Amino acid sequence: MKLEIKNLSKTYSNGVKALQDVSLTIEKGMFGLLGQNGAGKSTLMRTISTLQDPDSGQINFNDINVLKKPEDLRKVLGYLPQEFGVYPNVTADELLTHIADMKGIVNKGERKDTVEALLQKVNLYDVRDKKLDGYSGGMKQRFGIAQALLGNPELIIVDEPTAGLDPMERNRFYNLLSELGEDAVVILSTHIVEDVSTLCTDMAIIGNGKVMLTGKPNEIEEAMRGKIYEVPIDRNKLTEYQEKYNVISQRFFAGKLMITVLADELPDGKFDTKKPSLEDAYFKILSEN
Ligand SMILES: Nc1ncnc2c1ncn2[C@@H]1O[C@H](COP(=O)(O)OP(=O)(O)OP(=O)(O)O)[C@@H](O)[C@H]1O
């Protein structure tokens, strides 16, 4: 199983270059596409999902030429868009049954079994007869995954799935997502670094419509070992430190401002060496662009 994206470009009519010569090879497993708001993630996800056309480039999934045969891709695609839309005043069971019907699962018995199994899988079986518009954000997202999984897709795309979930719902959702990569190519688009470090075996960072880095999260972290330092400072000293050092990020920690600095060696005795995280790598890339 393999998704190959080659030289994909897209400029919107307002002149925004949302994709600039994007090439990626994505194999079976969970692939994280990390980028800030506006980086081009949704444009890429919608293009792969055949909802919009690029200006140029190619996409192949196994032997399907996606841009030439979008209908072939749709048969093996499961897509959870960023905005799944307004949740109608129907139950999870009713809507999933309806979508299963539209996806071509026409045999009633088979459809009932499929819908039941999926509701079990996403842990909504007990609330299957409740109206969707009364669901919590996490429950809605789990429903979104259930509909994306109808028809056993080989390519699953989830766009910013954990935005707006509370920590417990996010954890539950992670458990669900972590199983998906076993038999499919799964692309998880997100601006949340933790999503990628928790779930993904491979990743890319995208910014301004360009691929800035690809690799395995642990290798990307490892490449930064011995180069990341931190020190707590007074908030009003930030500019001073920024002038002197390559400050890649800052956060509040117990009332102090903790700054993270990129350097080839210990900047001075006040700094501590920090075990690099994926977030440090991400901030480094962002600070360079
Ligand atoms: N239909 C459109 N017409 C014009 N510009 C657009 C359109 N859709 C997106 N853009 C612009 O293209 C750029 C990339 O947007 P895109 O939605 O792909 O980014 P994103 O990484 O998914 O961000 P977000 O998380 O905010 O959705 C942004 O500058 C956005 O404003």
From TrEMBL:
Residues 3-233 form the ABC transporter domain. Pfam families: ABC_tran (PF00005). Coiled coil: none annotated. Transmembrane segments: none annotated. The keyword Nucleotide-binding applies. GO terms for molecular function: ATP binding. Keywords: ATP-binding, Nucleotide-binding, Transport. It comes from the Bacteria. Belongs to the ABC transporter superfamily. This is ABC transporter ATP-binding protein. It comes from Flavivirga jejuensis. The lineage of its organism: Bacteria, Pseudomonadati, Bacteroidota, Flavobacteriia, Flavobacteriales.
